[in-house]
UniProtKB/TrEMBL annotation:
Domain AAA: 14-184
Family indicated by similarity: To B.subtilis soj.
Protein name as annotated: Sporulation initiation inhibitor protein Soj
Domain of life, per lineage: Bacteria
Pfam family of the protein (one): AAA_31
Presence of keyword Hydrolase: yes
EC number: 3.6.-.-
Keyword set includes Zinc: no
Species name: Candidatus Methylobacter favarea
Gene: soj
Length: 267
């Protein structure tokens, strides 16, 4: 019966790239905790680690020794479904794998190089509600693969001036892909690592709301020591400190995401 339904409805799965070429803005933290919060809310979620550093697996408490993941699926050595690791209820991980670094360096021969991820995903993971791709902090071939494979992007942004500068560069890249692929991304932003006591924070937030009206998710993720502690225990914030403010930030962010709730500029 289930099988019949999934064949009729085909690709209900939404694929979202969590992207920002700047490192340390909270891409992996958002991936881990948003995915877990969505899974806890009953959604079927797959998190793909497209960063050769492999921090997503570590943050979820999965220790791997040179084990393949999305790298082998992109290189067509394995089917992507073989690379799935069940990590929590409703949440599965596809780790990065040691060959991901080589993929970033691929030159012309293995063409088309930009379609490796899209092809690996094609027709697979249709039993999922959401597939999130935790992107590396670069602007190379892996990012091109992520942008070609998705129609939706989620951009974590910190509340400092240089992050704002970097964002215009990222939006330039996104626009170039929109032009050459003739598609328009649904782009959402999440204010991450927000430090309310710094004046620059509210200035950056105002600029974001002015430049991206209706695109900044309603919940602000605040800077908090517990969020930095979680990865060393291999736990998400919902496990490490379920009653913390940060855990409720991420539960609320998951609801924003599901309900399309965004922040509005205060007058
Ligand atoms: N809201 C936050 N509060 C405190 N520390 C955070 C927060 N978000 C991320 N961090 C920490 O900042 C560092 C970089 O975050 P990370 O999510 O790995 O960024 P990225 O994936 O964009 O490089 C990590 O050590 C992480 O634990
Ligand atoms: Mg990361």
């Amino acid at each position: 019966m289930r099988l019949g339904i999934s064949i009729i409805w085909g690709e209900k799965v939404k694929v979202i790239a969590i992207i920002n070429q700047k490192g340390g803005v909270g891409k992996t933290t958002t991936s881990v905790n948003l995915c877990h919060a969505l899974a806890e809310a009953g959604k079927k979620v797959t998190a793909i680690d497209l960063d050769p550093q492999g921090h997503l697996a570590v943050s979820l408490g999965v220790r791997l020794q040179q084990q393949g993941g999305i790298d082998e699926a992109m290189l067509k050595e394995k089917n992507i479904r073989q690379q799935i690791i069940a990590v929590r209820n409703n949440l599965q991980l596809i780790p990065s794998g040691p060959k991901l670094k080589e993929i970033e360096q691929l030159t012309e021969s293995r063409s088309p190089r930009g379609l490796l991820l899209k092809n690996a995903l094609q027709g697979n993971l249709n039993d999922q509600d959401f597939v999130f791709i935790d992107c590396p902090p670069s602007a190379g071939l892996l990012i091109a693969n992520a942008l070609i494979a998705t129609d939706e992007i989620l951009i974590p942004m910190t509340s400092d001036f240089l992050a704002l500068q970097g964002l215009s560069h990222l939006m330039g890249t996104v626009k170039r892909f929109e032009k050459s692929l003739q598609k328009k991304y649904k782009a959402l932003l999440v204010m991450s690592r927000y430090a309310p006591t710094r004046r620059i924070s509210s200035q950056v937030l105002s600029s974001l709301l002015a430049y991206f009206p209706g695109q900044v998710l309603a919940t602000i993720i605040r800077e908090a020591a517990v969020l930095a502690e979680c990865p060393s225990f291999g736990k998400t914030i919902l496990e490490y400190s379920p009653k913390s403010r940060s855990a409720s930030d991420f539960r609320s962010l998951a609801n924003d995401f599901l309900e399309g709730r965004v922040m509005h500029e205060s007058k």
